[in-house]
Structure formats: C-alpha cells, structure tokens
Amino acid sequence: MLLGVIVGLFLYLLAACALALLLLVPGARAATWRGLARGHSRLRSWQWRQAQVAQSLSHKAGARGVHWLGFVRRHAWPIGLALLVLLLVPAALGLLRLRLPADTYDHRLERPRDERIAALLMGEQLVPPPTLPPELFLQRELEQARPLVRSANREWALLDAEFRQRLLVVFQILKERHGYEAVLIEGYRSPERQAALQALGPQVTQAGAFESYHQHGLAADVAFLREGRIVISEREPYAMQGYQMLGAAAESVGLTWGGGWRSLKDYGHVELRRPGVLRREAGHAHTH
C-alpha cells in the first residue's frame, strides 16, 4: 500500500514537471517537437546506420543535458511556481476531505449499537414533556438567537411520529445521562414562516418554503432550561457543552445534527432526513 502511494507520487511529480515545462515555457514545446521529429527520422534509418547513430547520440546526449540544465536555471521561477501549485492542489483537497464533515446522515454506515437506546426506540412510546409557559420565550437573548421565535410552533403533536419518538429519546438521554433538560424551541414550520425567515437573510436560513424538513415535521430546534431560564447562546460554555451532547445523542438515534454542517452551523438543530421529501435536495447543504 505504502509502496504504491510512493510510486504514484513519483509518477505525479514527473508528470507535473513535464506539464509545467510544456505549458509555461514556449521554448520547451518547440524543443519537444524538434526532438520528436528528430527521433522519428533517426528511427527510420536506424537499421542502416546503427553504429553511427549510436555514437552520434552519445555525444549529443551530453550536449543536450548541458542545454537543458541551463534552460531549467533560466526558467527556475515559473517552473518552481508551477510545481508548487500542482503539488499543493491535491494536498489541499486531501486535507479538506479529512477535516470537513459531511452534511448528510448515511443510514448505510454501521454505527455502534447502544442496546438501551435501541430498546427505547422499539419499546413503549415516550410522552412529550409538559408545555412550558409562554413567558420563557420572551427573552431578548432568545429572540436574537432565533428570530421570530415568539411565534414559533412548539406542538409535539405536529411532528412526524417517528421523528418525535427519536427526539424524545434524545431528550431522555440528555436528562438521565448528563443532567440537561432540553427544550423544544420550534418544531413544525409552515411554508409561509419558512419564507419569512429566509427573507431575513442567509445568516438565518438558506432554505425557502418546502426546502426545510421543518415543513414536514421532521426537524426541531432545541435549547436548554436551567434555573428557570432558557439557555441558547453558543457563547455560554454550559450551552455549548449541551449542544455537543445533543449532537452525539441525536446521531446515536439516527438523526442529523446541524452542528456537523460545513458552514452556517446550527448547533440546536436536529432533523430526520428522508429521501425525496424536500422540493430540491441535490446540492442542498442546509435544511434549517
């Protein structure tokens, strides 16, 4: 495996050198064509002048080597720049591939099985928590983090049955294992509300009407209740720690966590993705 990688890199370096010379130095192209033409001519008369041509080539090879060495020295900067670009591009792409997480949840991947979570998903249906007082959702901090949050829908009954059960399991994991009391900030969202949020700008959402799982009851925005106050700001260590736990719990029950997106990360967002549900899914990165 390692030997194959080394050989591949060596061949790539040779190809990069040749490409740099041909693309950046016109003289190299002319010299290459002359060399090919000369070689073709010599090949046709090789059988007749085998000994003479061999002796002639030995002398010319030395002269040509000196010629190319001077040529490389005269064009060191463009050749070096071309090599640097050709070598850095695949390295940068490989690094990005390793560092950037995927935006989608692939159900085909095998994940560690938690028997207790599996039992919760297959067992008795969990009951949604009691409705919270509307006054809790009048905080200025909450409005800044979630525009139009006061008019958001928080009815558990409007969520998809499978998604609702998985989300309740997440809430139970957060409370029993980590002592965090999760709060539903918004669940189902009408197409009109989605369009209104999109009109506020891409910093709020990039999804239009019927382009979000919220419209199908398959997404929810979550925060945490602490000492009678909703904690939602990512600047608070308590909330950020809770979001990390939320992401782990959500992924353990097959949900997609918004904190794992490449850009416009939405740490409080979770959703259950189903193929063919959204109006446009190809190339759609965010479904908040």
From TrEMBL:
Pfam families: Peptidase_M15_4. Residues 207-272 form the Peptidase M15C domain. GO terms for molecular function: peptidase activity. The chain crosses the membrane at residues 76-98. The keyword Zinc does not apply. Keywords: Membrane, Transmembrane, Transmembrane helix. This is M15 family metallopeptidase. It comes from Inhella proteolytica. The lineage of its organism: Bacteria, Pseudomonadati, Pseudomonadota, Betaproteobacteria, Burkholderiales.
